[in-house]
């Protein structure tokens, strides 16, 4: 069967053509609004300012990589829609740590948005990156728990206003561990540094947890999807994997603004530093942050749902082949004039696409007249395709099948079950990030078939048709990791019915060798669709639902040979390929008693 999954990744890299983007925040995302004001001229500095608007970096900031063409509000003309209202030094309140600059805080930025007659519409994205400067302002002079409460309150008030102006989804950055930036080096004596770091982390961890809870409550109240962007996790990850990500220096600033010294005029050397100045990222760091946002936006649009959907697709494909191997044995049994009475045993093994493999044993019995039964058990393995990273299935299958003869007419049936687990990791398209997973995967099927045998001397022709019901279940699971992008998925359970038609040709070339060929087409006639729901772990974002459809149609060619080895032993060799670009082969040795 065709079980295509239309990846949304290509749609997620670029922002929707008709969607608008609005940004509110501080220097972590500012595009030069502050430096367009009198008294803040940076002419001659090494900061990036190709359009006259100075960034806090040596290149474009992350939002410019994410949304090309977005403009600072101070330079956005009439009719502009992708606008960045952020100001360096802005706080969640009214003040600015860069100096007595009026009209730059979060609330004032929203005033600017409203004064332009702008309103949010479906698909628009709002970004909020503010609050860090409140903590910097109060460091050492105020209980930071009070600062935390103030930031949460101010952010909540601002987000309420944005909801009132039509914002349906707002991405809200958490406060990173800013005390690890070069600007804060030497703030305490070296012997007190570890204790200071621990205190700051504890304060900021508590703030981040309380901010998420506040955003959840606010989202429930307003209906706005308020997504926490865990840049704190991103920067901790970058610091822990600096060398692998190309950073030779994460403790010093490339540009010492006070001394006016620059690490190098070579952009490549500058970007080997994580920090351009004492607090802000180089363009290399900005690009990583843009990648983090792309990954997050992809997951908000359901890209991570490919993982459990891929598990379900693997299980259905595996059960398709369990049923197909039963049909191979059924056609062989149907073709014989009279089944040999007694017991039979078999051992088989095979390989297939996506590292698929199986090895099993079987036992059969026939009354020598009309009835034949078989029971097969096998160890099953394989890889889940279509998901970045690695996810491997390991489990067991059992199949019970039987045939009945009425002259030249044949009836057959089989039932089977697959049970196991998928274990591995999903990689994110950012900074070597990954999330581990374990998920239970099981399924069952039942097939009934009818055929007719036409003998033409050494050639036996068997047209047949069948119906198969299949069900697959992927259990609930939660990814493990520390990236801020981990997902938790509800269980996926789906079932449907497939109709198949085929013809089997067998030619008794000699007394010992019978080559055969089967051609078939299967089509899903009902089911195999539904909606899969997941959510970001420990986040204020709402549930993420994505519809799936695992049905379709596919043709398959199977060919092989049955070889009599003597003393009641038989060797069966077979290979197959289908229009889904899947293929495989297996061998079976049987003994009759």
TrEMBL record:
| Superkingdom assignment | Bacteria
The answer to keyword Hydrolase applying to this record is yes
Q: Show the GO cellular component annotation of the record.
A: outer membrane
> What range does the record give for the signal peptide?
1-19
Matching entries from InterPro entries are given as: Autotransporte_beta (IPR005546), Autotransporte_beta_dom_sf (IPR036709), GDSL (IPR001087), GDSL_Est/Lipase (IPR051058), OM_autotransptr_brl_dom (IPR006315), SGNH_hydro_sf (IPR036514)
Record keywords, A-Z: Hydrolase, Signal
Which PROSITE patterns does its entry note?
AUTOTRANSPORTER
Parts of the chain that traverse the membrane: none
The chain positions of domain Autotransporter read 326-593
Question: Per its record, what are the GO molecular function terms?
Answer: hydrolase activity, acting on ester bonds
The answer to whether keyword Ligase applies is no
Listed NCBIfam families = autotrans_barl (TIGR01414)
Q: What is this protein called?
A: Autotransporter domain-containing protein
The organism's taxonomic lineage, starting at the top: Bacteria, Pseudomonadati, Pseudomonadota, Alphaproteobacteria, Rhodobacterales
């Amino acid at each position: 069967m065709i079980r295509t999954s239309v990846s949304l990744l290509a749609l997620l890299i670029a922002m929707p053509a008709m969607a608008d983007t609005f940004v509110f925040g501080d220097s972590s995302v500012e595009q030069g609004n502050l430096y367009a004001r009198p008294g803040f001229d940076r002419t001659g500095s090494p900061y990036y300012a190709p359009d006259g608007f100075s960034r806090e970096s040596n290149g474009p900031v992350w939002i410019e990589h994410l949304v090309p063409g977005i403009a600072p509000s101070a330079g956005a003309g009439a009719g502009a829609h992708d606008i960045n209202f952020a100001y360096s030094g802005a706080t969640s309140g009214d003040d600015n740590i860069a100096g007595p600059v009026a009209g730059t805080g979060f609330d004032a930025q929203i005033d600017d948005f409203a004064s332009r007659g702008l309103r949010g519409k479906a698909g628009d994205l709002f970004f909020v990156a503010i609050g860090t400067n409140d903590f910097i302002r109060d460091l050492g002079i105020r209980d930071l728990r009070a600062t935390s409460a103030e930031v949460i309150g101010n952010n909540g008030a601002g987000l309420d206003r944005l909801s009132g102006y039509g914002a349906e989804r707002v991405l809200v950055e958490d406060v990173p561990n800013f005390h690890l930036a070069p600007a804060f080096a030497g703030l305490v004596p070296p012997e007190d540094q570890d204790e200071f770091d621990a205190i700051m982390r504890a304060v900021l961890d508590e703030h981040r947890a309380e901010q998420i809870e506040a955003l959840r409550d606010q989202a429930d109240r307003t209906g706005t999807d308020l997504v926490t962007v865990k840049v704190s996790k991103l920067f901790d990850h970058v610091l822990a994997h600096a060398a692998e990500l190309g950073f030779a220096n994460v403790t010093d600033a490339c540009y010492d603004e006070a001394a006016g010294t620059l690490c190098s005029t070579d952009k490549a050397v500058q970007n080997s530093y994580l920090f351009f100045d004492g607090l802000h990222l180089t363009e290399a760091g900005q690009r990583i942050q843009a990648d983090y946002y792309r990954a997050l936006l992809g997951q908000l649009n359901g890209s991570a749902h490919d993982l459990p959907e891929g598990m379900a697709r693997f299980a259905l494909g595996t059960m398709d082949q369990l049923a197909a191997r039963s049909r191979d044995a059924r056609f062989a049994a149907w073709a014989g004039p009279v089944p040999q009475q007694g017991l039979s045993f078999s051992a088989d093994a095979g390989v297939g696409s996506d590292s698929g493999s199986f090895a099993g044993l079987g036992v059969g019995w026939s009354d020598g007249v009309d009835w034949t039964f078989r029971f097969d058990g096998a160890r099953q393995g394989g890889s889940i395709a279509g998901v970045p990273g690695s996810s491997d299935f390991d489990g067991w299958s059992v199949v019970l099948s039987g045939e009945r003869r009425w002259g030249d007419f044949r009836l057959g049936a089989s039932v089977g079950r697959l049970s196991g687990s998928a274990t591995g990791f999903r990689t994110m398209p950012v900074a070597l990030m990954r999330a581990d997973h374990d998920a239970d995967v099981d399924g069952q099927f039942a097939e009934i078939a009818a055929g007719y045998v036409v003998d033409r001397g050494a050639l036996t022709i068997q047209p047949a048709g069948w119906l198969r019901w299949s069900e697959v279940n992927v259990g609930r699971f939660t990814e493990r990791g520390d990236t801020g992008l981990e997902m938790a998925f509800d269980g996926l359970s789906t079932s449907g019915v497939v109709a198949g038609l085929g013809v089997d040709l067998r030619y008794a070339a000699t007394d010992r060798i019978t080559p055969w060929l089967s051609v078939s087409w299967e089509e899903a006639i009902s089911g195999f669709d539904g909606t899969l729901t997941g959510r970001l772990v420990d986040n204020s974002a709402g549930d993420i639902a994505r519809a799936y459809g695992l049905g379709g149609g596919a043709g398959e060619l199977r060919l092989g040979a049955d070889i009599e080895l003597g003393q009641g032993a038989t060797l069966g060799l077979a290979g197959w390929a289908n229009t889904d670009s899947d293929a495989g082969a297996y061998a079976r040795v049987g003994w009759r008693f």
